[in-house]
């Protein structure tokens, strides 16, 4: 079907509006990050007359990002890998109907997505684990925080279930005839086939963990456990903020996510298109 000229025009208008909504704030922050504080006070919205890349060096030191970066890499890496593996192991038998009450369990996961975030219950659970189980898996522990972040993989699990349902069950029978075990079948046959949806799950989990600021404040009280987002608090002034340095800090925190997205965007687009066609 060939779209009409009016339909094309409306489509371009919507695409332009979306580009403005998403790109203009990023470009504005990047422009502010290159200004001196005096230039920003004179005209916050003007184009930077000089590129003060030294702002990034000063922001890196003031935000203590070197102290927090390794924590964020640890939290994000472990949480993402564990969440993806758990989601695959849970989604495959439910998608294939290999376990009893699989539809009921899936319904429970769907219902959990509509419930409010149980912050108070999570806080009490973390205190209970610290006081009654072990201090290394409860409140103010790196392992406890990663366990808490891993427990929020419900959306990724549902995506995996829907995608695995689109894969032919004849592969299961062929693998069984060839003598492939359960783990070998999942890792060597199923995982390569669901790369696009894995990439989507990875980027969603990474964004949720890397950008988490409220969680560390609630469940991690020791500064040595803080992630990179905690460095943004260092730019809060008593009577005002140094907005160019704060803009630099925002760009520093967001840069790894942008780089990751550039590397795996092909799989994300393919996954979205495949899901749209197969559903």
UniProtKB/TrEMBL annotation:
Localisation per UniProt entry: Cell membrane
Tree of life domain: Bacteria
Transmembrane segments: 12-34, 73-92, 104-123, 143-164, 185-210, 243-264
Cell membrane keyword on record: yes
Keyword terms of this UniProt record: Cell membrane, Membrane, Transmembrane, Transmembrane helix, Transport
InterPro entries in the cross-refs: MetI-like, MetI-like_sf
Name of protein: Carbohydrate ABC transporter permease
Native species: Candidatus Pristimantibacillus lignocellulolyticus
């Amino acid at each position: 079907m060939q779209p009409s000229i009016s339909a094309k025009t409306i489509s371009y208008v919507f695409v332009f509006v979306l580009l403005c909504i998403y790109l203009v704030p990023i470009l504005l922050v990047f422009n502010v990050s290159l200004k001196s504080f005096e230039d920003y006070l004179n005209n916050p919205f003007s184009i930077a007359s000089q590129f003060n890349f030294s702002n990034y060096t000063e922001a890196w030191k003031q935000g203590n990002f070197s102290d927090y970066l390794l924590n964020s890499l640890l939290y994000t890496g472990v949480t993402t890998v564990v969440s993806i593996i758990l989601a695959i192991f849970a989604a495959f038998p439910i998608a294939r109907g290999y376990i009893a009450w699989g539809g009921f369990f899936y319904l429970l996961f769907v219902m959990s997505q509509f419930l409010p975030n149980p912050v108070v219950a999570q806080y009490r659970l973390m205190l209970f684990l610290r006081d009654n189980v072990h201090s290394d898996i409860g409140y103010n522990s790196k392992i406890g925080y990663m366990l808490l972040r891993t427990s929020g993989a419900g959306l990724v699990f549902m995506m995996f279930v829907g995608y695995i349902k689109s894969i032919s069950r004849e592969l299961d029978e062929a693998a069984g005839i060839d003598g492939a075990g359960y783990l070998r079948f999942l890792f060597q046959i199923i995982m390569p086939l669901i790369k696009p949806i894995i990439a989507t799950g990875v980027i969603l989990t990474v964004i949720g963990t890397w950008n988490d600021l409220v969680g560390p404040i609630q469940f991690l009280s020791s500064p040595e456990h803080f992630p990179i987002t905690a460095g943004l608090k260092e730019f809060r002034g008593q009577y005002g903020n140094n907005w160019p340095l704060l803009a630099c800090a925002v760009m520093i925190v967001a840069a790894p996510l942008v780089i990751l997205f550039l590397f795996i965007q092909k799989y994300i687009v393919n996954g979205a298109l495949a899901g749209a066609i197969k559903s």
